[in-house]
Amino acid sequence: TIPDFPHDLLDLILHLVLSHHGEYEYGSPRLPVTVEAMADDYIDNLDAFFADVDATDRKVRKALAPVSGQTFFVFHPSFGYFAEAYGLKVLTTRMFTHTGPRRGDVFAESSFAKQIAMIEAKQIEPPLKVGNLESVRTIADVRDAVRAYHMLLTVNPQVGAVYNIGGTHTCTIGQVLDTLFEVAGQRYEVEVDPARLRPIDADHQVPDCSKFMDHTGWKPEIPFEQTMVDLLEYWREKVKRTRPLQR
Questions:
Q1: Domain check: are 108 and 58 in the same one?
Q2: How many domains does the chain have?
Q3: Where is the NAD(P)-binding domain (predicted)?
């Protein structure tokens, strides 16, 4: 022991020792409450974080080593940094609204088609639940979108290029619903469901896809109306084959 060692300082040192793991679940009998103890905990956490980052980096490098130098495509320019760090080549796209058979029901047009099919099958009663019907979208068929992705990688791919890809049919979400009603041959009452309204909605999404079209020769081939026919038929068949679905 050190004679006449200040008790206050001793308490601080003991607290540092007892609380340096930071959390009870990490084996610390005390939580840090002093500035010094908190700083010690933050330093430990930072060291652990960097160790995790280094371990992840080694794992990613090992996994990507067999494909070093190859090209892949992504949906955000930020992946350019990833490609540069790991010796890859990147093409970047922004694919705008695309839909068709098998589209998930979290998306407006597929939710509409699903509800229409469920009403037809007498699984639910109207009204049909909707969100913001005034949003504007340019819509492509998912099968045209897949063909676009294939052409992106096979028609003289330009490493580092960035493209918008989207359809040529622009309409409001309400007009999408109108088209589905026309396909169904029946209109139903609708009701705005607050849960389907986004707090922030990018409500006007109309792309300029001329750069991609000029480079690849791609253009949409499946008419919007056919997409809606196929989407509704998909949900009609799915409703028939499965036990009652949730709206």
A1: no
A2: 2
A3: 82-228
User: Is the whole model's pTM more than 0.90, yes or no?
Assistant: no
The separation between the first and the last C-alpha atoms of the chain, rounded to the nearest angstrom, is 73
Rounded to whole angstroms, the Cα distance separating 192 from 190 reads 7
User: Across the 247 residues of the chain, what is the mean pLDDT of every consecutive 10-residue run?
Assistant: 82 80 73 82 82 95 94 85 91 95 96 97 96 97 97 93 96 98 98 93 93 97 98 96 75
Contact in structure between 118 and 124 (CB atoms under 8 Å): yes
| CA distance linking residue 193 with residue 128, whole number of Å | 9
Considering only CA atoms, which of 84, 87, 111, 81 is closest in space to residue 99? 111
Q: Please count the residues of the chain.
A: 247
Q: CB-based burial of residue 116 (10 Å sphere; 0-12 exposed, 13-18 middle, 19+ buried)?
A: buried
* Residue 74: inside a domain: no
